Amino acid sequence: MISIDFSVAIAAYTILLLGIILISWIAGKKQKDKELSLDSKFIWFCSICSYTYVNTRDEAISLCPRCGSYNKK
Fold first, then answer.
1. Residues 42 and 30 occupy one common structural domain
2. Largest CB tally within 10 Å, which of 4, 18, 60, 69?
3. How many domains does the chain have?
4. DSSP string, 8-49
5. pLDDT of 21-57, one tens digit each?
């Protein structure tokens, strides 16, 4: 039978648990990065104040959040 010290067993268990958590965190982060995408039709540029903003509503005219002017694509 293999004899192992109690402190070595606790250290090995802790390292294994932290490794599993780290690997699952990295895998989840990569999956989240894949889901995030932005279509160019949602990026708006204000002709008055030159502010670039995102409006996810599919409209022909958008209201600039900075200066309040109306912009069209």
1. no
2. 69
3. 2
4. HHHHHHHHHHHHHHHHHHHHHHHHHHHH----GGGEEE-TTT
5. 999 999 888 776 666 567 788 899 999 999 999 988 8
